[in-house]
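haha ok so turns out i had the wrong file open the whole time. this is the CORRECT one, sorry everyone. sequence first:
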Amino acid sequence: MTTTTPVEADWDRAPSVLEGARTLELTTGDCNLPYWLRHVAGTMLRRLSDGSVPDVGPTAAVRTPGPLRDAIVDEFTFRHLAEEKAARALSFLVFHAPGTDDLEFFATQLVDEARHARIFREHLLRVGLDAAEIEAEVARTAATTAAAVLDPLEEFGLRVLRDQGDFYGGVLVLTVLVEGVLAPAAELSERKWRPLDPAAALVERGANMDEIRHLAVGSSVVRRHLMEHPEERPRLLEIVTEGRRLWEKLPMQEVLFRRESLFQEGLAEHAGLIGDYEVWPGRRLVDTGIQERMEAAARWSQETQDTRLAYMLLSDAAR
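then structure:
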């Protein structure tokens, strides 16, 4: 019997993270353990491992020491640590899950995030770092960028998940304040690395396909809960508001500016390799600047969060 692969798990048909995160509707019942084993492990990851999804590897421009390699190292060590923290936090959602489908979905999301942490880290081997260099870069990022941005966010999430045992508040934190913020930036990353490091873009594409599912299902969990318990809206609104206030205080813009500055140096150096490639319709990557790319990512993040908050019946938090 032939099993049809759902569009969101199909390498050839899955929407971009921006389109999927805004429009896709999925529930924990749709994406339970049998779904994950059949369509993610059994189709999506198999196609990646058997070579049917082409992987040509990084270009020499990224493998050579310089600003482009520095940019990918900076970004992927940060992503490795972010995904690792997400995997650890998800263990509390699994523990507090109120039903079987909820438990199974968040168990698969935990595995997804742990896999992402591994593939972001392993890609650094492909751009020329050895194991000792990767360890040093991860330690440096953990002590600097992650300490400034990820640690406060993790502390906030664990207060909701671990200390308060708040399942729905925890789903909201992960869906809006983690996935909803980082996924649009990952979309930009996938697009901008495609001509320079196709393997990095492929890593991002696979992770983004998972994030589409995580955003859609997480949103449906909160929506279902509020339809059944509308009296919970004020409490969940306060969590979103507090989390957004926290994000505004974090130095993420400085982190992105440094990373995009390195990328911009490499862009100027290797413009001939990129040619007329468009990072979005009508805009060549070589013509973009640091601020323009950062503004695009920020705009996509805001639009994605607002759309998902409205779907979750929390549109008040989008104002």
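Residues 103 and 197 are 36 Å apart (CA to CA).
again sry for the mixup
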